[in-house]
Amino acid sequence: MGKYILPKGFLASGVHCGIKRFKKDLALIYSKAGCKAVGIFTKNKVRAAPLIVSKSILKKGKPIRAIIINSGNANCCTGWYGVRDAKRMISGVCDNLKLKFNNVQVSSTGIIGKRLPIDLIEEGIPKLVKSLSEKGLKSAASAILTTDKKIKVGIEKFKIGRKEATISGIVKGAGMIHPNMATMLSFIVTDAKIDKDALKVALKEACDRSFNSISIDGDMSTNDTVILLANGLANNMTIKRKTKEYKAFSKALKNVTFKLAKNIVEDGEGATKFVSVYVENAKRTRDAYRVARSVANSCLVKTSIHGENPNWGRVAATVGSSGAEGIKQNKFEIYLDGICVFKGGKFTMPSKEKFYKIYKRKNVEIAVNLNSGKKDARIWTCDLSKRYVEINSHYMT
Amino acid sequence: MGKYILPKGFLASGVHCGIKRFKKDLALIYSKAGCKAVGIFTKNKVRAAPLIVSKSILKKGKPIRAIIINSGNANCCTGWYGVRDAKRMISGVCDNLKLKFNNVQVSSTGIIGKRLPIDLIEEGIPKLVKSLSEKGLKSAASAILTTDKKIKVGIEKFKIGRKEATISGIVKGAGMIHPNMATMLSFIVTDAKIDKDALKVALKEACDRSFNSISIDGDMSTNDTVILLANGLANNMTIKRKTKEYKAFSKALKNVTFKLAKNIVEDGEGATKFVSVYVENAKRTRDAYRVARSVANSCLVKTSIHGENPNWGRVAATVGSSGAEGIKQNKFEIYLDGICVFKGGKFTMPSKEKFYKIYKRKNVEIAVNLNSGKKDARIWTCDLSKRYVEINSHYMT
Shortest Cα distance from A81 to chain B (angstroms)? Predict the structure, then answer.
């Protein structure tokens, strides 16, 4: 099965049902056994219908057996119809797989405010179910994409005692990516047997330093969803919190979300550079994030990176206007691609040779040392290109 | 004197001293009589040297007679030299105009982190002083510009009793404009005789709904300064707060700052559209501003306006993610160019004819009715164009 393996007992598929013109637009993930399931959803006050439906099903705590996802239409701001259509997607899966309503999750991404072409989806579900396969992860990963250029898959194998377990995840991202999760759908499945409480904490920890630490353009979407399913078929002793086994699970999960998050930024709309913003030695973690996000979201910083123009002044100005506490002009330092450019309130005047190496590579690094405490933060983002403006001038949500 | 008149007793000039290659880069405003002076400065924690110097002089409360301004170099992040160079600019004016150090203000805009070519400035001051003229406002207005395309001048005449008074203002803006004032210098002069306390309040009120209510790209600069001088030569009875005369003064001042702020947005880097964002019926004023700023700073909203693509979904998503209190998906309404597109949690489906008129004109309007209180806010901004990316990829601060 090579690169795109699924954990034991999971099948997946992706087909074209007609929401989009040519590309795959309907995906299914299925487990032969009931799964413990946890999810994280957007904090946007405007929420898409499938998200409302999925969240309420998760609350009931029944074992989850399947997730159905469509791309090309977000089923958001669609009023009463939206909820009904999301439920019809679930019912379609139930009919074809002999499942109960509360065993299924539903998710959508794409244009906002247009009714879902639910008939097309319902007609597509039998084919979708028939295509289910242990090799279907790649198809599913491609069926959830919108403006993404590439599929994004993360897989980790790890040991729990003598048993081997697998975590496989897929994600769609591209524009609108922002801390607190935006236009991002991620579905992660594992055959590890794990306590639900442990599963929840592991997902939160993994998201905080991955999906919640990236930013493309500072906007936050209405459909963001991360769902994690664990079917227990690895047959290990149930993992509980604060054990050695939990650590192994948590580490593997972090590796998966880390890779997926990185892939999202690399695939950011119009992105030509991958930018890591590090903030060190802040008084509080929130101050560190505040500075990191200000820098990562600054259009002026992002365009200067695009132009390979080491404009440290814009970084300094953004640090100063971030609103974080403990910022003192004479105290903080800025390093661009490892070269100190700002210290003691002024430009350090590095050699021309060094200075003109800054921002030249595909991977760019901005580090800010606040020298006022011990907390740190990291945000990944990309540059702001003319291509970004081009894509987003014309795409209808 | 036509369009560019100065109030009684004021002279101005603008010359080229060599900071920039060809364009004017040094400006002077002079009053024959001592002025009451008030100022508003950036909230950025990184502050340029001239700003530190000017602020400390203002604090002393001596009558102000002159303001010297250079463009092309911000004298920011220049350490100990920066303060000395700013003081040398003042001393140059003092020597040539027989003034004392505490009678002069200094201001700079342009590249960050490079030492000011103070010798060139000192050599230019005699010529600058010689050029002082009642007709010099236009020259001064052009000498303070950086990436601005046009000079920006606002003038109001008004009556105080039987006396006529004038308020004349100039501003430089372009990129980085943001609420709380960013890369913006404005110098406003009046011959009205007014109590200092009243002058201070009038400036704050005027700035709140003008310079502090605009946004180009969400960044905040290190040099932002508004200085208002009143020399009293109109010879009216001194204006005090809460009088009819104060109202007339305040109104005229607001008209000036209003016009200057509007000009800044119209001249925003790469701007092709002028965008007004109105938020009505919020619970608190801060919620109204929070929503208005979120919409005005959203790259996705701004690119969709650039593409004349009435993507109301992005506006709805931004309202939802603004973090303002009292946002309910089913309660707020969105109007684009006066056409209701979102109500009751969904797209209102206006006629195609109406819908495709949206965003087509140069002046675009986004109105959000939160239906949860009585407070409102307005932010002016512009679209986000490929030209913006072009300009800012290459400009060194």
Answer: 10
* Count of structural domains within chain A: 2
From A207, A239, A266, give the residue that closes a domain: A266
What is the set of active-site residues of B?
183
How far is A319 from A357, CA to CA, in rounded Å?
23
Query: For B304-361, how does the pLDDT look when each residue is reduced to its tens digit (9 = 90+)?
Result: 899 898 988 889 988 998 889 889 999 999 999 999 999 999 889 899 999 989 999 9
pLDDT in tens, chain A (397 residues): 458 999 999 999 999 999 999 999 999 999 999 999 999 998 888 889 999 999 999 999 999 999 999 999 999 988 889 999 999 999 999 999 999 999 999 999 988 888 999 999 999 999 999 999 999 999 999 999 988 889 999 999 999 989 999 999 999 985 544 433 347 899 999 999 999 999 999 999 999 888 888 876 555 667 889 999 999 999 999 999 999 999 999 999 999 999 999 998 888 777 889 999 999 999 999 999 999 988 998 888 888 899 898 988 889 988 998 889 889 999 999 999 999 999 999 889 899 999 989 999 999 999 999 999 999 999 998 888 877 777 667 655 4
Q: Are residues B20 and B163 in the same domain?
A: yes
Looking at the structure, tell me whether residues B207 and B62 fall in a common domain: yes
Please tell me the pTM assigned to this model.
Answer: 0.83
Q: How far is B18 from chain A (nearest CA, A)?
A: 22
Same domain, A229 and A282: no
Query: Same domain, yes or no, for B200 and B326?
Result: no
Give the CATH number, domain containing residue A24. Answer: 3.60.70.12
Tell me: do B362 and B215 sit in the same domain.
no
C-alpha distance from residue B396 to each of A361, B26, B146, B390 (Å): 19, 20, 12, 12
- Within 8 A of B44 by CB-CB distance, chain A residues are 317, 320-321
Domain that holds residue A22: 2-266
Bridge partners, residue B364, by sequence:
B275
> One-letter amino acid identity for A163?
K
B339-343 and B346-347 beta bridge pairing: antiparallel
Give me the sign of the Cα torsion angle B233, B234, B237, B241: negative
CATH of the domain at A326: 3.10.20.340
- Nearest by CB to B311, from A47, A309, A397: name it: A397
Closest CB from B44, B114, B314 relative to A397 = B314
User: Nearest-CA residue of chain B relative to A110?
Assistant: B313
Structure tokens at A130: 């028939």
A23 and A64 part of one domain: yes
DSSP secondary structure string for all residues of B256-302: HHHHHHHHHHHT-TT---EEEEEEEEESSHHHHHHHHHHHHH-HHHH
One domain, residues B247 and B105: yes
ipTM above 0.85, yes or no: no
Q: Are residues B282 and B300 in the same domain?
A: yes
Q: How far apart are CA B155 and CA B141, in angstroms?
A: 13
Cβ(A336)–Cβ(A359) under 8 Å? yes
Of A238, A266, A294, the position where a domain reaches its end is A266
Give which of A225, A220, A242, A267 is closest to A387, Cα–Cα.
Answer: A267
CA-closest candidate to residue B172, choices B103, B121, B230, B221? B221
